[in-house]
User: Fold this.
Amino acid sequence: MHETVVAQNMIDVVLEEAEKHQKKPVRIKVSCGQLNALNDEVFGFAFEAVGKGTLCEGVQVDIEHKPFQGKCKNCDQMFALDFEDPRCTACQSDSYELLPDAPLILEQIEFLEE
Amino acid sequence: MQKVDVGRTILSANEQHALKNARMLAEKRKACLNMISSPGSGKTTLLCKTIKHLKGQLRVGVIEGDIQTEIDADRIRATQAPAIQINTEGACHLSAAQVSKALAQLPLDDLDLIVIENVGNLVCPGAFDLGENGKVVVLSVAEGDDKPIKYPAIFAKSIALVINKIDMLAMGVSDDFDLDKAMADAKRLNKDIKIFPLSAKTGEGMDAWCDWLKTNWRF
Assistant:
């Protein structure tokens, strides 16, 4: 349900960028971590609903979900954390530091060429 | 098509408010915990009992988040502790801006620790920082021992796990909750997580939890 709030914030930023470039956005690429709890389908629906009547109407949304990252305390390797088997992918040690979750980022906007 | 790399962080409105809250609390030297669980895990009962247990040792104030009603804040106020109720009116989590307003209404000078009882939900509240020093996740025996592996994110991100209603184990009401499994799964996700199995109802295990609060959450 929080997807609506996130969609509103996202649309504000996309509209700002559209204004800056004076172009119509057609597609956006978004990346996020695990704690943003964004469901692709719900977010797409919210984005559509909130964007209705703005330049964001009809914009396609692609979301890339980034895994939690661990940093091995034994060999310093950074690795994507698998919750089913949380250990270093290089040395197999289960002693690691959980790195901050990836933030929600508007990575890229595709604009319609004039 | 023209592709433009933007690289802008979203949710920044919430993050800015969270940062503001964190700075204000640090300046006033107040500790703050964000308590997250499913509905019905016993967060409010735990807080009421904790406040009574710590009377004269740690001054606790509470911010209550619920979709509707003032019920929880009234339960906290009955313990003589100050409580501010936030009604999210449909939203599944508290936002830092809401907490900011609630903090302004609490008598902060008379408090050591502020506990934010988030809206009952194991998923969404984890995505919205409120300016707290740490998250505490509460799991109750009635919910089942599989919650850490089903909802790993919040267990991975919390500094402490309270396993509530352990009296149900002793009573034989719930014989399919494997306490060791729940604890091992949580530790596997988060080696540093502090775990407090307790019953807010009977008082069993409350000493360890309250000692941890007293020792770590007074600046």
Observations:
- Residues 6-216 of chain B form a domain with the Rossmann fold fold (CATH 3.40.50.300).
- Chain B has a mean pLDDT of 94.
